[in-house]
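quick one, 117 residues, struct below
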Amino acid sequence: QVQLVESGGGLVQPGGSLRLSCAAAGGIFSMAVMGWYRQAPGKQRELVATISSGGSANYEESVKGRFTISRDNAKNTVYLQMNSLKTEDTAVYYCNVRYIFPVRNYWGQGAQVTVSS
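---
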């Protein structure tokens, strides 16, 4: 029933920017933690950023200062603004919605981000 639809992926050169969006439907998301994970070729999935219902954000160290996560609760949407992109940012990016009480996780379909010269 719950669906997370991602958009905004694409191909950019190093130093460029992209903005990912994830629209959630089929539930109440205002009290959920929303975030982004990524999985690069041949590597394990890793956390990129999370944002609480109150707007408190946490970032993986390698993206701090370059990426910004935000959310619009009225639109049930979470965003990831990616600036100063590096080739090592190339990955499939997955939107995540997590409820703590009780613990539940939902995932988007993935958005390909390719950073290449």
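The mean pLDDT is 96.
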